[in-house]
DNA sequence: ACTTGACCCTCACGCCGCGGGAGGCGGCAG
DNA sequence: CTGCCGCCTCCCGCGGCGTGAGGGTCAAGT
């Protein structure tokens, strides 16, 4: 039996355009043409189309479908499990987005407008949920981490807001210093570096000079920290790194 | 403070091309240009960019972001909840795909190759999970539905395979009849229509003539049923409908 | 003053999976 | 012979950029 595009399209619940497309890319060529150039599909074509639609339902891209169907060495099981992972990953990302939206809606209800920093920290490369595991891997067995966990767990919403505010204030003054052209190892820069150390000690954990220089190195070594400071002011990560080192040397 | 594209790109962790794109579509125009034509971004531009990236993380398309940011009457809360629904819908679809993949992998393990019919019924418009609710809404309080439920619940895998086989056999003979050019109200068509009714009675539920004609009408009225028959043979739904009616009249 | 190399600019095509339309021919019924 | 439907082949459009090509600009080093 031979069928026209329209018949095939109705049967498989796809559009004629889709069949044209499959023909164009060589995924499903009709087995023949009439003298007038009309596409003629036979039963084998229909079978193949059904397989194609099946894999499409499973989310496979067309080129992979072609591979699965045409390459006798291709292992459908391997493709399936790869596709399974891929889809699971997509679901995970979407679920994070949904969680973030819920967070944003919740914040609006409570009446807090998210500050730029918060938006960045929550949804940017500083996503705390995603970050938390790694922080624990890297710092979980340190005293600083323990202290930080203990103190911050008792912080109220007001505490967090004050924290944010003093941080932003420091950030603004640091940025202004950079704009002024002052050297990173000058006295004003060192003073702000020292203030940064005190802020950490006050809000998070005891931060002696050597821990502070360790942090400073991480600010330039870890792109996620770098990016955080770069959004405050381009070049800030390197500038702050130098200021912290200068401050530590002068106080040693 | 003024920044170049490159600086802004590094700070916001996007590519220069992305900023060019935002400029092109008017989503984020730099506040100025140098005499040489270089883009110059200021702090307000950075703030806007951060908002843009924030909404992008939440999955908003660029034109909607523009709307949210530029239209003072736009309600971010409404956008958020709409977006929430949209993402939830996408998650649902992906989860269906994942379930289908798992089904397919399971079937491969057990060693059953899915037949075309099964692929179609499971993942096409005849998706049983999706379909089951509607079937129950429409037919749940009928005797036929009760019988069907009771009988099929006791079917073994072998029963199902035999069922599939006799159905396919009937389908092949019916398709061959159509190919032969026999009229839909001729004796052979009526005989196969009657056989169809007997098959239903044998495998599913008692199917008297009036119920059979009701089914026949549904085959042409409900596109999902129509599609099922159309994949066996284009035009089959209408042909079968006529044959069933002819058979019912002759036996009344 | 010149060169180098990093940066910037503007096109402009490519991706994926089709949707949709223009402009024109083929086939079949009345 | 006239409709009308269905078929054909282009070809643009979508979203959000990636990735060049082919060239100007800027600051630093020689």
From TrEMBL, chains A, B:
Q: Which residues form the HTH merR-type domain?
A: 2-71
Which Pfam family is one of this chain's hits?
TipAS
Please name the InterPro entries in this protein's record: DNA-bd_dom_put_sf, MerR-type_HTH_dom, MerR_fam, TipA-like_antibiotic-bd, TipAS_dom
Q: Which UniProt keywords apply?
A: Activator, DNA-binding, Transcription, Transcription regulation
Which superkingdom heads the taxonomic lineage of this protein's source? Bacteria
Q: Name one GO molecular function term.
A: DNA binding
- Has the keyword Transport been applied to this entry? no
The record's section on PANTHER family has: HTH-TYPE TRANSCRIPTIONAL ACTIVATOR MTA, REDOX-CYCLING DRUG-SENSING TRANSCRIPTIONAL ACTIVATOR SOXR
The name this protein carries in UniProt is Transcriptional regulator
Taxonomic placement: Bacteria, Bacillati, Actinomycetota, Actinomycetes, Micromonosporales
């Amino acid at each position: 039996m031979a069928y026209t595009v329209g018949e095939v399209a109705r049967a498989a619940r796809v559009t004629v355009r889709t069949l044209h497309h499959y023909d164009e890319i060589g995924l499903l060529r009709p087995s023949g043409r009439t003298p007038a150039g009309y596409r003629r599909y036979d039963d084998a074509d229909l079978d193949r189309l059904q397989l194609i639609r099946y894999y499409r339902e499973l989310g496979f891209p067309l080129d992979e479908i072609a591979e699965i169907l045409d390459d006798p060495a291709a292992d459908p099981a391997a493709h399936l499990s790869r596709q399974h992972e891929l889809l699971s990953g997509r679901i995970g990302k979407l679920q994070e987005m949904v969680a973030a939206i819920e967070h944003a809606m919740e914040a609006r209800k409570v009446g807090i407008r998210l500050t730029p920093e918060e938006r960045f920290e929550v949804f940017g490369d500083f996503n705390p949920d995603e970050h938390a595991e790694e922080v624990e891997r890297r710092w979980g067995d340190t005293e600083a981490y323990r202290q930080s966990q203990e103190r911050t767990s008792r912080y109220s919403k007001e505490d967090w807001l004050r924290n944010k505010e003093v941080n932003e204030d420091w950030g603004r003054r640091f940025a202004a210093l950079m704009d002024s052209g002052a050297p990173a190892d000058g006295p004003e820069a060192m003073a702000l570096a020292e203030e940064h150390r005190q802020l950490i000690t006050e809000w998070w954990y005891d931060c002696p000079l050597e821990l502070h220089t360790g942090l400073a190195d991480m600010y330039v070594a870890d792109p996620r920290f770098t990016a955080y400071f770069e959004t405050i002011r381009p070049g800030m990560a390197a500038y702050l790194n130098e200021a912290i080192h200068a401050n530590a040397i002068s106080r040693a």
